[in-house]
């Protein structure tokens, strides 16, 4: 059994579940929506680049083989073919080669923001009683309530009815990925938020957690965290991970739930790729 903690092997496991999950989502969404034009580039042993809509992100870098100049050229050309005048965002782990960082700086990449990656030991974790509204319950998502879940998550992320309507099928595809499980919060029967979870071996990843704007601050995100941790533990997972932006309510919630900071990632942004 591998040794989990603040080390390169743990980082690779976490980055791998993100890469594989995003690949599976792209494939699922393409099946459900033939008009979806998202594509991804796999740099075997180095990382992946995903382009969808107005976003081009790469992650998994700095955990295995070192990126060289030809790899950067390949990624940038991939983005140029997909999107004109777009930037590429690369998520860099703490184990990335220092020469890579310097090479990207020479090419004009700048720091855009940081991400916190958290880890919790489910073997030591015990459920906590979460303060909540009396009428609030958490449901596991199935065929009957998946549309309610997808709508609540899409609206919670976008804060806009039109954008939510556009995104609802995209969100739904995350639930349809094999191995993913989703949960919905209702308050007195009405949808208030939801979250998703992926499992890969003994590791679970919590992601896509959102609450409707009018229902924030009522403990629903904490409920969703606890529900997924319990589900992951019962499914045989030893650890769970989640990624947040620093200093956010999400970061505070996962820390309160017992997560420990595993590592930070620097997100570097390229110049516009014309």
Task: Based on the model shown, name its key terms.
globular; 11-stranded mixed sheet; 11 strands; transferase; Aminopeptidase; 36% helix; 30% strand; 274 residues; alpha+beta; single chain
- Record the strand order, biggest sheet: 1-2-3-4-11-5-10-9-8-7-6
What would you report as the Rg, rounded to the nearest angstrom?
19 Å
Overall domain count: 2
> Could you give the order of the helices and strands?
HEEEHEHEEHHEEEHEHE
Q: Count the strands?
A: 11
What's the overall average pLDDT, rounded?
92
Give the topology.
Layout (H helix, E strand, L loop, with lengths): L7 H25 L6 E5 L3 E6 L2 E7 L7 H14 L6 E4 L5 H9 L3 E12 L14 E5 L5 H13 L2 H16 L3 E8 L2 E11 L2 E9 L8 H15 L4 E6 L4 H8 L3 E10 L5
Parallel strand pairs: 3-4, 9-10
Antiparallel strand pairs: 1-2, 2-3, 4-11, 5-10, 5-11, 6-7, 7-8, 8-9
Helix pairs in contact: 1-5, 4-5
GO molecular function: acyltransferase activity, transferring groups other than amino-acyl groups
Organism: Planococcus koreensis
Pfam families: Acetyltransf_1 (PF00583)
How does this model look, in words?
Residues 139-274 form the N-acetyltransferase domain. This protein has helices at residues 8-32, 69-82, 98-106, 146-158, 161-176, 220-234, 249-256, and strands at 39-43, 47-52, 55-61, 89-92, 110-121, 136-140, 180-187, 190-200, 203-211, 239-244, 260-269. The chain has 274 residues and is α+β, with helices and mostly antiparallel strands. It has 2 domains: 8-116 and 265-269, no CATH class; 124-237, Aminopeptidase (3-Layer(aba) Sandwich). It has an 11-stranded mixed beta sheet, with helices on both faces. A hairpin with a 2-residue loop joins strand 7 and strand 8. It is globular and about 55 Å long. The relative contact order is 0.18. The model has no long low-confidence stretch (mean pLDDT 92).
